[in-house]
Amino acid sequence: MTWLVANPFVGAFHMLDHPFLRYAFIAGTCIGLASGLIGYFVVLRSQVFTGDALSHVAFTGSLAALAFGIDLRVGLYGGCVAFALLMAFLGRRASADDTVIGSVFAWVLGLGALFLSIYTTGRSGSGGFSGNAGVSVLFGSIFGLSSGQAITDAILALVVAAAVIVIARPLLFASLDEAVASARGVPVRALAYAFFVLVGITAGEATQAVGALLLLGLLAAPAGAAQRLSPRPFGALWLSAGIAVVSVWVGLSLAYAFPRIPPSFGILSVATAGYLVALLVTWRRDRPGRPGAPAHLEVLS
Amino acid sequence: MMEAVTELTWNLSRDVQQLFAYHFMVNAFRAGTVVAVVAAAVGWLMVLRRASFAGHTLAVVSFPGAAGAVWLGISITAGYFAASIAAALVIAMVPGSRGGGTSRESAVIGTVQAFALACGVLFVSLYGGLLDSVTGLLFGSFLGVSDSQVVTLLVVGAGVLAVLAAIGRPLFFASVDPDVASARGVPVRLLGVVFLVLLGTTAAEVSQITGALLVFALLVMPAAAAQQLTARPGWSLALSVLLALLVTWAGLVAAYFSTYPVGFYVTTFGFAAYGLSAAGRSLSEWIGTRGRPGLAPRLAVDR
Questions:
Q1: Domain B12-288 sits in which CATH superfamily?
Q2: Partner A, chain B 99-128, Cβ-Cβ below 8 Å
Q3: In Å, how far are A47, A53, B69, B127 from A93, measured between CA atoms?
Q4: What is the ipTM of this complex?
Q5: pTM for this predicted structure
Q6: How many domains, in total, are found in chain A?
């Protein structure tokens, strides 16, 4: 793979010859699209904390499924969606500095460690894969997707993305001003539940791409950058999706070009760099006292 | 995982003998005791100041610190401390980055946390093939605590407690009522920075026993439980230390006599202590409203 660095164009051309990379790109693109779209609303509604919590649940759900010998994705999606519904039920009562909720999540993660240990010791004789299971759930294994998994993930992610686009306008209204939206007849409660279910499914998807511990970055970083760069809601929504997809593409290419770089680090570092650039670009504009600066879309939590 | 087969018998003295038969276990108890005392004291103030999200971030950052130290071949203890203290200084410098706050700030915190963990993965990958110790770094491991590590933990822990004792009174004042304290000439901002550095140091210490992801078990749960049980600052601080010690010791014993990881036991016992004390408090309040003068009011902090 050293020739690749010498001639990046030829390398990029041949990159998609590898089936595992094709699957990673197909699934990664769709997952990035879904994450970027729903992530914009996660940041807009100040629900980054929910993303943090979902990463704990995604880990424990996956490993519980493995420990009980059922398909990993049953536990992953089941746990994430069930938990997202719980967060929708709790509503704004759940906040980041809450000791109770923090303690519950730490315990959930401790349970995940237990399931990991049950799974690992349960099949210690059957080869090297079981030791990897915990690590690949935590940090993703997008290069390990089979063609069937990649297609399933891609379709599911596209369904999520389509659903977000369909409800984008009322959801935006409800997120910006819940009281007025409710008075105008927007079904605020139903939208909140739909939103949380979509976040849960996206968290499950993102777990397979970048891992349970890093899914928060894929939800928060592109959306945070887009929110700074564009004051218009729909511009920011599409920008967020674009940044997420580009992060996945560049991250996967980096991981392919430099085999020591894990794909999840590649994706996350591009997304973080995007956020940093957005921060620097908007730095001057944000300084107080400068007339003519466009007003920011600010939501009071 | 363990070479020798250990079994819990009904013979208590034999169990204790078995427990301390190995040097690594003695070291684990020494390290656990030091960490529990420091974590309970600093965690008590952290819960009071409602800075648990900062504590979580500082602990998460200790993972890339440790993984980076392994990759570079330097002392893993130094990696823990360097990363957490550096992160504490960064958080202290950025104004308003303490809690969830507005949507834009929470996006920053989420990005920083995820990127820190991603760096940890990169370091692990650069070092190559230590898949077993990844889970150790994240979920805790009591195997292989060396003598020098115990000494380091003890010295740093003693330093943290000494600083805490020196600034304890003004810090408590500034935590309970920052406005009045600042009007009385207490340097609230400076105390906040010092506290964050102490918190970073403590998070690094706790990470070495419970793993980077489970520090809440010793940093938050005992303190939160103690503050449920009594409203008097001195008593609840002492109770917090006691609970942390019990949770740590029980966790180590349970992990030694079973195959499951110490992080699971420590979080479970910590959570049980918190759940029981919250339930006990609700019960006594319920009895208290039925005619008897109940417990003293909760130690409430308005921020």
A1: ABC transporter involved in vitamin B12 uptake, BtuC (1.10.3470.10)
A2: 99-104, 106-111, 113-115, 117-119, 121-122, 125-126, 128
A3: 12, 14, 40, 43
A4: 0.79
A5: 0.79
A6: 1
